[in-house]
Fold this protein.
Amino acid sequence: MWLADLGARVIKVERPGTGDDTRAFGPPWAGSSSAYFESANRLKESIALDLANPYDAALARTLAARADVVLENFRAGSLERFGLDPEAVRRTNPRAVYCSITGFGSGAGAHLPGYDFLVQAVGGLMSITGDADGEPRKVGVALVDLLAAKDAVIGILAALRHRDATGEGQHVEVDLLSSLLASLANQASSFLATGDAPRSMGNQHPSIAPYETLRAADGMLAVAVGSDRQFRALAVALGVPALAADARFASNGDRVGHRAALIAGLEEALARIPVDDAVERMLAAGVPAGRVADIPSAFALATSLGLEPLVDVGEGHPAQVRHPVRYSAFTPETPTAPPALDAHGEALRRWLGAPDERAVHNGE
């Protein structure tokens, strides 16, 4: 979808009858499909092909032979019997960028199914998510799927750049586990530096304090203090300058080491201050802070800041989240609604010069 936003013509190949599994990932529903499907399929064309049918498999090969990019997420090796594996496609289309997304790679993990929730579990993300004394928790969205998708876009664009320079296509491989591990960032670095497994800490940051949620008089707010100067400003804004003068909180390392006492002091002050008042004071003092909001409030905030977070894709479909990047030299494509199953099948078959089905069955 992000590639379509950038101007690519995207043709989605789906199984006849049921289509993409996410069409049935509901409730909630949006017209004839799920809200889940709507979130990832604008600007696409849909054709239903049964790859076990030689006629349809021939059409899929014709499509791959014309494509700049072939993107697939079958289990590794599954497409060889249809002549749609990377080597077969690039024999007929050597300029093609062929991108495979798997759960655990094309080697020893090729047989393992890849689902976001599963990879969050076995990839360690759940072990650092949730309350310190609670059970491991998944993130509230399919974050690993999204990370892998962004990695795929990066890899595809890099491969297209290479092709522009050399005329050579290539096979780009992305797997969910590697995308997750590459995104563990400081948590992975902490383990690699110490050999100790990071643990879940709720909303606290393992290396910065206060960088967490705090309880005020009427709710929760998030505070992200990234420097000693910001901490001093925070203490003054909350009317407790003595905290900034306390040797236990003089530096970030000191504050991390005495986090419990620090949070107790801050929340004692905040107990007398409503959330909105506390946030206003902190922002005026240059301290990053905000109310812990729900998703409707997040969209309202983005709208109030002029970020125009939503786009209309047509009657009968809910609004969608805008492409997240702004470009000074061009505008992303005007979105069209996610397609019904095989909505473009007839036109695409004509465009592909669909062979006579009887000739295909006769091996001609």
